[in-house]
From TrEMBL:
Protein name: Immediate early response 3-interacting protein 1
UniProt organism field: Ursus americanus (American black bear)
Pfam families from the UniProt entry: Yos1
Family as reported in the entry's similarity comment: Belongs to the YOS1 family.
Subcellular location: Membrane
Length: 69
C-alpha cells in the first residue's frame, strides 16, 4: 500500500480531530491531566505532561472556530 498525499492529509486531520474532542472535565481530569495538573513554577523547564496539555489546549482553541449567533 502506497502512501499518497491524500492519505497523509486524512491521517493528520483524524489525529487533530481526536485531540480536539478531548474534554478536560470528563476525560482528561480522570487520568490526572486536568487544567490544574502539572503546572510548574517560574523559571522551571516545563515537563512533557505540561507541554502536551498546552498542545491539546492550542489545538482545541484553533479547531473551535467561530460560532454563529
Amino acid at each position: 500500500m502506497a502512501f499518497t498525499l491524500y492519505s497523509l492529509l486524512q491521517a493528520a486531520l483524524l489525529c487533530v480531530n481526536a485531540i480536539a474532542v478531548l474534554h478536560e472535565e470528563r476525560f482528561l481530569k480522570n487520568i490526572g491531566w486536568g487544567a490544574d495538573q502539572g503546572i510548574g513554577g517560574f523559571g522551571e523547564e516545563p515537563g512533557i505532561k505540561s507541554q502536551l496539555m498546552n498542545l491539546i489546549r492550542s489545538v482545541r482553541t484553533v479547531m473551535r472556530g467561530k460560532k454563529k449567533n
